[in-house]
Records
---
Amino acid sequence: MEDKKHTNQQELICIRCPIGCRMTVTHNQDGSLQVAGNSCKRGEEYAKKELTDPTRIVTSTVRIKGRSNQVLPVKTKEDIPKGKIRACMEDLKQIEVVAPISIGDVILADVAGTGVEIVATKHIK
Amino acid sequence: MNQQVDIAIIGGGPAGLAAAVAAHSAGIDNLIIIERDEELGGILNQCIHNGFGLHTFKEELTGPEYAARYVEQIETLQIPYLLRTIAVDISVHGDRKAVMVMNKEKGLFTIEAKAVILAMGCRERSRGALNIPGYRPAGVYSAGTAQRYVNMEGRMPGREVVILGSGDIGLIMARRMTLEGANVKMVAELLPYSGGLKRNIVQCLEDYNIPLKLNHTVIDIDGKERVKGVTVAKVDENRKPISGSEEYVSCDTLLLSCGLIPENELSVGLGVKLNPITAGPIVDESLTTNVEGVFACGNVLHVHDLVDYVSKEAESAGTHAAAYIKGEKKAEDKTIEIAYTGGIRYTVPSAIHIENMEQNQVIRFRVDNIYRDVELTVRIGDTTFIKQKKKIMAPSEMEQVIIKKAKLLEIPNPEQIIITISKEGI
């Protein structure tokens, strides 16, 4: 995403479909956003969300007690704010789970104060 | 007496699993999956990121979750499988195929199968194949190897990283290494465009301010015991390094994401003919190779981008293998070649037998460049089957067209199916 400094415009590429429309978003005086360059509504929605409240799903791994050669893959159950990714990774570092684990098991109820759960994505015997 | 099965499936990754389930659904229960790793699931076990299954399950799953959906079916249907067992040779043995396998418990032994489904997947292009000069220091890994270390074994391959290749594996690892505390200094890409999804450019590189250097490559690796740095250079339109553009980048790790190659050593040993463009077997509409009773699907046939397509293709292979066992294949008379022009690199299948084709026969293909605002045409003689406007087509996005058998049967003496891409009106 490019910031044109000293202007009220930003450029970004849409990721909602393979076309990858290059969009330009204008910040109006009244605080609203104007999206140009999109080919569909999904692009407009994506641009607005990405510039006001960018969120991401985070996928990573956590340690398993007693296993030095195996880790458990996990994910945030929903999107979390992009700015919380670092804090999320710090929280995951503190965790050590105990096998067995099933897909969907809640590993952490609220990661980095987002209210979002961390869940297991693999069965571990 | 060797173990006798109807179908032996080589590989328990997404292709092998889907093929097994489909063959079982079609009535074959004397089958066996041969898997060399500790568990079923194949490459999906290390692909802990999400984006899998949007087509198949209408959900975005991580790799292990997608694999689990199929492993559950394998367990429920009680389909037999061998783990930590590697197939070392396949040969024709009368009217069966002899699959020689090896594991710790039984040593070397043979399984005789009426039909074999090749589902071995692919390997990554190595540093040797890329001819990057230098000593052989520790710290040079394929991106997939690094992915396995990090995501399955919990090991960090290094801390200061340069990645060569901007395909999805390289992009995903740029993010993964960064999240685990590494400093990913850049992703260098030989071509003028990235082979990865836009989503990954944004969420793996832009999110973490990792520079993407298009038209660049690594021309030297510095370090004797351990990587100390690499030399990166810009390349010209012939992909040759431009003198004077060299830049030394200190690092302790080089990850290579420079292409996937179907793993067909077993196929070649069996006498299966490969398509030099895909490096995978040449197959017909039933995904049968030139060796009767030998089918191929998934990445071993041609490298896919979406696991959903792998599952569909493997389902087809499993169904056809079952039909072969049951003697349902009709005697073939007419073969129609699939020809292509104007920017298409290859098609799978390469030819169709009308009698045995599916009601809705899928032909998958890739283009050789990025094309915008073009027309995709499929015709036989003067009959146009498909005419589609396409806003964008890219080498990194496998495409497919569907030929209806009923419509094909209406054409007298069909010779070739011709697939073309052209600018509108030309």
---
Amino acid sequence: MTEQTGVVSAVPSHIHLQYQPGLPIPNGKLILWLFLSTEIMFFAGLIGTYIVLRFGAPTGTWPTPHDVHLQEIIGALNTAVLIFSSFTIVVALEMAKANKPAAAKTALLATFLLGGVFLVVKAYEYQEKFAHGIYPAAPHSLLYDRADVYYAAAVREKLSNTRAELEQRKSQDPNSFSSADQQKLDLIADLQLNLVQWSELTATHCDNPVVAEDTLLLMAHLIYPLHRHEARVRQAIRYEITELQQKLAKWQPSPNGAENRMFLVSLQEPAASPDAQPSAAPAGAVASGRAVLENPERIRARLEFLEKAEKQWPHGINDAHPWLKLPIHIPSGHMWASTYFLLTGFHALHVLVGLFIFSLVLPFRLDSRYANVLENSGLYWHFVDIVWIFLFPLLYLF
Amino acid sequence: MTIPSASAGHSHESAYHGPSLRVFLNVFFALVVLTVVSFVTARVFHESPVVSWTVMMAVSCLKATLVISFFMHLIWEANWKYVLTIPASFMSILIILLLIPDIGRRTRLYSEERWRHAPQPVLQESHAATTEAHPVSGH
């Protein structure tokens, strides 16, 4: 035994030293378990943070999966894929230990492909979020936490910027300006007057703060509907329609017709030539704000708009016209997006690293001498699977 | 240098007699069943979220235990596995408990100004709502 220790001859020859390993496992496996413990710390920190942030958000604000286009069934599919891939890599390891390299290689290849499937499904999920304007951060993110006056101002600004772009294109090259583009301009004008201007004026001139808040909530809901606001918004629409119809019934024409003139100005404004003043009127001078709200033509336009919005855009304006990309209102949306993309992003990176490790192992002959390497790769892959086992209910089902 | 494990040392002499594949197949089916349970729980206990959260967390812990014990072969390892798993589990729970007073309950100390910019729930229609009286919004 002494030849194993390499001890110098200071030890007398009648003493036999025996090398005792600290742990009964190979060094590679020990190091990998130490690495996995650091990964446990890493993900426990992230997942713990998510749990605390999610349950500490103001009660009743955290978006439901439907609100943020999260499909539980896709998450369940990903879970099944990862669990199956964990199984196949265990099979690969057992085949290698039993000295069956061909079977081991097949199983390892299956694991590799299943990991690829997971990443493809995740990419599809990310694309769903991005298509609806849900990004981890500005400037791509369209999220707003509250439907307040800042949100309304953001919608107004987005509409006028888009309109300015379209009008510039129209004036530069009138021939290439198609009828579809003109329809876009008309839609923007419609929204500017009957959605944004109306909601902003109502909110600022209203005596009842509840009605004011509901008007902006209605505007946000028409752009991007949230299931939990459905009942409240329907009630707000009924209330508004009743109120507006009562106003129409009580309206008396004013003697000098000043209101009609004022209204004609604001209605003609969208159909005006491209070099007319860009939407200064929709911002609305305070003096004429109340007049707009009382004007019968504007009231009728608003009633028509509400009806059209309910019938033609049941899934919201952003869904019906994806090119608009209007700001959307999702309470706690920022927190949700941050935690979701952080957790799933880091997990997907770990899956990618796992696939890279498999690609390094695949070329070799996976017999029993190579079982150690396969075991270590498998341990890493199982850890990635465990993280997903916790992530799936936390992100998708809670 | 790696210490040759027992199986590699004897690979060319005797066949490897480890756990049969049947064990792992059973664990795999158990994991699939548990995933379905977790998925269905979210639907069934829709009205009482606390129950569904508890069940789902318990199912997740059970699934993780199965993967760690069988797929990662810890059940066949020596006592060092407890040194690894017990402190890690303990600290994972502890980090959440320690963050709750400061971060989990942060809205407790919000000022009026802060609440004006914070997301707020929108109450569903109240039973007393009519077209005359508008329902009060939540805070």
